[in-house]
Amino acid sequence: MINQLPPLALWAHFIEFCAIPRPSKHEKAIVSYIRKQGEKYHAIVEQDEAGNILLRVSGSEGYETAPITALQCHVDMVAQANSDSTHDFTKDPLQLQLMDGWLTANGTTLGADNGIGCAAMLALLTDDSIIHGPLELLFTVDEEAGMGGAFGLQPGWLKAQQLLNLDTEEEGEIYIGCAGGVDINSTMELQWQKGHGTFVVTIQHKFKKN
Ligand SMILES: [Zn+2]
Fold first, then answer.
1. Which residues pair with 105 in a beta bridge?
2. Taking the model in full, what pTM does it have?
3. pLDDT digits (tens, 9 = 90+) for 139-152
């Protein structure tokens, strides 16, 4: 049974995420679930114009003055169903199945991207056995259909100096980057030299404020 898998709080939230329809641009219900969890567990709940929701969580006893850490995930999911499925992503809960150690959804995408990250963030809020410093839990909307949430993020909202984005593909890999997106094209002239060696390439970038 999925609800008996450890860590219990993480799976409990993930099961809720799978029960609440959340394709991109239809995130009201899932944001409302996050808001209720935030209010129930005494976080400060804020929302920006883009619809992103932020829970400010105080540090555990003895860690109240530790540096703030921000964690970020997107609440929407890729909505894809098998051709013979009648699943309606705006209304129907996903049908979870656990087989041979793999959790999948029957006939549809599972939305572990990024539901499992959101569930991990909520577990930090709701499981008192996890000791942590002050947290900013940022749940963005509309990632899969144009990154509307990340692009519309309220400037200056986060106070943390470090942010962990929990949206990744491969276990054990860490990407250093930003939660939005930007394309950079650059050209440079190369001077070829004979022989082998190690080259160090340093890239500096500056972003213009619009
Ligand atoms: Zn993702």
1. 96, 108
2. 0.83
3. 999 999 989 999 99
